[in-house]
Amino acid sequence: MSTPALQTGHIGLNVTDLARSTAFYRRIFDFEVLSEKTEGERQFAFLGRDGKLLVTLWQQSGGAFPVDRPGLHHLSFQVPDIEAVRQAEATLRELGVQPLYDGIVPHGEGASSGGVFFTDPDGIRLEIYAPSGADTAPAPTQGAPTCGFF
């Protein structure tokens, strides 16, 4: 039996510093705090837009995100157009966050879709992309999807 109208719900992320991560995700993605608990042992923040939950942050880890282990590869957010990607890139640079590639890049050779790839304060790999408009830059990974090998 298949589940009708299946779609991704919210994404839950473990973080090391709730206040730092909440500020980062709010600034980069313009999220609002829907609910949070910032005191005691079990701290969390529910972030979203227009009342819809999109990301939950749970302060319950230490160290940095291990990219060499099975699990989350990267978290991707689509925006309407390449101008919104440029705005996100400018915000990243204001915060001192270096993109993983040299700015906005296509998803692959000849692809029009693409975006900017970066990490959050705990090393979780993130992407902000648009469905078109990224074909003005060369693909950084020849013969493979940009979002797959970084």
UniProtKB/TrEMBL annotation:
InterPro entries: Fosfomycin_Res_Enzymes, Glyas_Bleomycin-R_OHBP_Dase, Glyas_Fos-R_dOase_dom, VOC_core. GO terms for molecular function: metal ion binding. SUPFAM superfamilies: Glyoxalase/Bleomycin resistance protein/Dihydroxybiphenyl dioxygenase. Keywords: Metal-binding. It comes from the Bacteria. CDD domains: VOC. Residues 7-131 form the VOC domain. PANTHER family: FOSFOMYCIN RESISTANCE PROTEIN FOSX (PTHR36113:SF6), LYASE, PUTATIVE-RELATED-RELATED (PTHR36113). This is VOC family protein. It comes from Nonomuraea rhodomycinica.
